[in-house]
Design a protein that fits this description.
The protein is mainly alpha-helical. Among the domains are: 55 residues, no CATH class; 48 residues, no CATH class; 62 residues, no CATH class; 35 residues, no CATH class. It has 17 helices and 11 strands. The strands form 5 sheets. Strands 2-1-5 form a 3-stranded antiparallel sheet, with no helix packed on it. Helix 3 packs antiparallel against helix 4. The chain is extended, with a radius of gyration of 31 Å.
Length: 491
Amino acid sequence: MNLYYHDLETIERHIFVKGFYSKYVTWEYHGEDITEVNEDREDLETNSEEDEISCDSDNEDDDDMIPALEDLANQYHHNSDFVNLGDSNEHNDERNTLPDLFAEAENELYFGCTTFSILTFIVNLMHIKVMCGWSNKSFDLLLDLLSKAFPKDNKIPRSYYDGKKMLRDLGLGYETIHVCEYDCALFWKENKNAERCPICGHERYKFQGTKGKKIPHKKMQYFPITPRLQRLFMSRHTSSDMRWHKEERVDTEGVLRHPTDAEVWKDFDRQYPDFAKESRNVRLGFATDGFNPFGDLSNSYTILWTIHDFPAYGTVSGYSTQGYKACPVCEDDTSSFRIRGKTCFMGHRRYLCPNHQWRNDMEYDGTIERRSPPRILTGDEILDKLKGVWKCRAGKNDKIIKDDKQQMKDACYENNTNWRRKSIFWELEYWPKLKLRHNLDVMHIEKNICDSVVGTIFSIDGKSKDTEKARLDLQDLNIRKQLHMKKKGNK
């Protein structure tokens, strides 16, 4: 039925063993128009898959390697704009072709081996290498030993490089980008061929190797998101899950089972209707407006929000998460005070409804809470504050840092806000319109709270919050007198 990609030899074997599917009368997979379909398509594909399984019983131990290759092949053949999934730093002319990969998936590791094919053996071995953190040299030594221990006709690659080259078309590659030694800039895009840092002027390379290869001071590996999204959408196992939020989700009022149920997502949909129409728009922070995972995605990414812990919140947003105004939402209206060398934040009853009984509880901090919740600033109001923030140059070069400080001093610059810099996200047209720009990772919060509660209940050393300093804090605040420290004798 032309549903899967195989070489001619395999197709001939399938036809000889099973013949043509008798109920396939409308050749829709061969170009015919669908005028009348008597059989349910789902039943058709199910029967087809059963035929494939029975035909390829000799490959049933391949851990879905053949189906994975078929998914990859289908996208290569049906999408001309499909982005290559291999390592972009390698030479394209060295890549294995799909027929080669199919052959390696069916060829035995050595004569008489029924457990592994060449491809499945390398995939499993590579997986162990990553999970256990083997070095490349140790992996080379292992491959050399295995090739000597196995029968002489074995197909085990002789080095990590050879194994990696074999799997290049299956793997999710990365780009290697040179970086200034002081993290000032990336040698990328317009600076790709620069020999010196465009900010601090530091040399890009340490020295030139004996074979003419230049060694950079620093480099980073960049993992493009496009091929990763393609891999999720091309797989028969995950493609339906990736579209579940659009095709299967039940929208129940008051129930939050998926980010699309949240008001932030719905508000974005109202502002950008095209975003909601595309079922392949992905979630978990990154999404695209009119997303096409197999087309040109270079300028179509939309960031709905970021997810991180609180220290990283400050790094990403540009707002200092330290000091009396550490809350990025409350800002100047943050409830905080100093006690015994640390800053405390205790104004949380403001968020309760006006008639809540806890607002009148003097045991909390010795006061009655009458304040309303702090007003959340709009994106435009935050932008007005950011206009006055000094734009320092990036990097850790001491000369650049000192020069920036001197310029700030000469200009009599003063910053009365907790904003330290303007994040690059504010250059996005829609960023000021978002209701929620940054998320705190609930995993960190739940773990820390759970550790504190359990540690306090069971009086675990180093984990309990019921300490001498905590009791003295209560005494300084003059609350919960039953928990104050009591003197015994002359102590």
